[in-house]
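Standup notes
- DV: blocked on the single-chain target, sequence here:
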Amino acid sequence: MSREISPVLLAACGTIIGFIYVTLKVLYRLFAHPLNKYPGPFVAKISSLFGAFHACNTDLHVKTLKDHDRYGSVVRHGPNKLVFNTAGALRDIYRNDQVTKSKSYLASQRAPGVFNLFNAIDPRLHQQKRKLAGRFLNKKSIDAFELAMIQQIDIFIQQLGAHSVKGPINMTSQTKYLAIDIMGHLLFEYPLNLQTEATHHHMMYSRASFFFNVAFQIPSFVDLGIRNLQSLWSMFSRKRYVETLEQIIRSRLSQGQHVKNELQFLSAKMTIPQDDQEWIDDAKTEALWHMLAGSDTTSTLLSALCFYLARNPRCYQRLCLEVRSTFKEGVDIRGGPLLASCTYLRACIDEALRMTPPLPGTLWREELARDSTEPLIVDGHLIPKGTQVGVNTYAILHNKDYFPDPFTFKPERWLEGSDEANREAFAPFSLGSRGCLGKSMAYLEASLTMAKMLVAFDFTEASDMQATSKVGDKALEAQHPNVFHVRDSFAALHDGPFLNFRQVGL
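- DV (later): unblocked, structure below
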């Protein structure tokens, strides 16, 4: 006569088996794993939840810097992760045909098998997509687009003048309005008009990068099929952001079917879908990442640059002298030899990028699946198969071996003859075939904007406003009060600085 097994007994057995499994896995990762010799935080050695926790707390970049200070140039930052902070590792990881993007990028897929430029792991597919997108961001295209960019920057200058009479201006908001307006024109020739109207101000906010950054730290999310962040955008982000993208795309599509050919890089496939809705769904996903990449990063750069100039009067005065002696009127400012001759302006931009990188985290990579037996070597370390490797941007740009006095704003370190900046360790836009396509455009946009600002206005920091955002690390902010601190949400999150503007000559 059979007996029924008690549910309580089943639950107890399951708990015991689960406990044994977890215990054995922890012991393996601590003592028998191929990476067990590498130092790092205890929790990071046994679980990817370490990275996810700090991604949720938006302080992973700060934690990584502290871990490098404690453990050295290579740190185990996950059961299968090694993070570096050396120029040699930058070269070996990001300029290496043996290496591709980590499968963690697949967490941003709209659906399995649907790839965009951001999450195309296969090098050949990525190269094809990059070539298509590059048509919008090569020198010829940027030169052609410059007039539209300048028109938006001129509106930005007008808005600074109009708003300055009302009190201090939050440069995070103002520069983001500018950057999103420029991206709307670049991608879709669409006037979003955030600088002059409130209609599309909801596009200031998207949590897509936050959710991706959390998923990015847990490779098993992809194995579990947790890839569709689009539902998270709808649930937690401001839904109007995605709806506005669709509105823009439909507006562009109404101009004719030729639009699909012009914007082929927005398609998930190398062949253009005939079905309009399929193409629109693809384009929304691709456009979201382009909008974030082109607006959040530029806003961070300009906000940080304003902060550092306001906090460093000597640098501010030197830059004013350079720009105002080169350009007498704002209408004279455009890309070309004169703007390129402003070497101190470029030095200030590079120093702001170094101190406050727009993408402060670690861009994870892994060895490409291949038949070759040649091992992957990173900065002298033999990397076991299945290991994710990366260089944390914030950590290497604050490595005192490459940048002495790393928490001090010193544009002079980038001028010819200085030995205080190691250019081989400077990669705020990443490197190699996966490096940022919009690098040249970002430099041009920042240079034009700052030059026009300084010809038109003098500015100072509002003394009664909190000018830096919180990264959740009070000690770091207290130790370095003259740093524009940001939060790590894949792209940097920040607030301020709050500036007072006065027209030059008044």
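- Follow-up: Residues 264 and 272 are 7 Å apart (CA to CA).
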